[in-house]
Amino acid sequence: MSVVRSYTQRRVGPWHRLKEVLKLYQMHVHDVPCQVRELLADVANTRRSIEALLGGELVDKRVLEIGPGQKLKTATILAHRNCVTAIDLDFVARDYHVGDYMRMLRDNGAVRAGKTLARKVLGIDRVFERELLRALEIDEAPQIQLLRMDAAKMAFDASMFDCVVSFSVFEHLRRPAAVLDEVKRVLFPGGVACVYVHLFTSETGAHDVRVLSGQRDGIPYWAHLRPEHRHLVRPNSYLNEVRLGDWRALFDSHWPGARFELFREPHLQGELARVRQLGGLANYEDDELLSSVLAVLWKKPPTAPHGLQV
Ligand SMILES: C[S@@+](CC[C@H](N)C(=O)[O-])C[C@H]1O[C@@H](n2cnc3c(N)ncnc32)[C@H](O)[C@@H]1O
Question: Is 4 domain-assigned?
């Protein structure tokens, strides 16, 4: 029996699952070149922020990605010029032989394995990977060391990585504090961690595929935070529901000196004003409702020659 639990743990009926898969399909196949361009631009921004803190290029570095997901998008980009290790709670396959699917079914559960199989059968991941490699001007996907591991309990020695990155994973963690400690331990002194958290209190924070895909089926804005509408929402994965203030406090206490940046969604201002007029969302700050992502950057203090941290 598997000891590591997949993060897709919610009970949803087969009809809703089918609708969810169709919506995901539409999202995945929509303008792949544009998706790749946006991804490359996002990673280029992230790279610049990391390099500014590292004090040098993010090239030939030992990089750890936590929770790369089945498509290995960011890992592939970073592995083009670095030595990347990627750990995920789920089994992530690269070659997709029959044995890989059997293992996926056993380790990741029927829902996640089914979604991955559907994407492979429909050729969605292949199209995306081909476009990504074309944009990177390489013929073959670069080497990535893929390991199934819980980020809260890593099997690595201390100080093994120059850089740790993670995108849209922390909101799914059952023990975020333990993960922050682990990242601190496995980072080399002077190394940099970069984490993007999709905020639960953001409009899309419930991870309901209908809202994520923009086809909301009449779901009211921020329905997951409004008791009268909460029953309409179907999150597609486990969420720890940590709020912005608590994230800041948690990062500050584990990674002193961490820098924060919020990615705002100003186009939602009008919707928020309408909900507030009706007396809704009174217990939430504008910042946490109008920001989709919290980006956190931290440099582990370098060690002085005599072994003390400076
Ligand atoms: C929403 S997906 C994000 C995938 C990818 N980073 C992206 O941006 O598309 C979250 C991933 O985090 C992984 N995950 C969740 N909890 C984890 C943990 N404790 N340790 C390692 N991976 C975890 C899940 O299995 C899943 O692949």
Answer: no
Q: How far is the CA of 144 from the centre of ligand 1 (A)?
A: 16
Number of domains in the chain: 1
For residue 178, what are the contacts with CB-CB under 8 A and spacing of at least 6? 152, 153
Q: Around Cβ 220, how many Cβ atoms within 10 Å? A: 17
What is the chain's Cα-based Rg? 20
Q: Which residue of 172, 183, 204, 239 sits with most ligand 1 atoms within 8 Å of its CB, as the best mutation to test the pocket?
A: 172
Task: Round to whole Å and give the CA distance between 262 and 296.
Answer: 9
**Predicted confidence (pLDDT) per residue in 223-256, tens digit:** 999 999 999 999 989 999 999 999 999 999 999 9
How far is residue 244's CA from residue 248's CA, in Å, rounded to a whole number? Answer: 6
Give the model's pLDDT for residue 306. Answer: 56
Residue 105, domain member (yes or no): yes
Amino acid type, 87: I
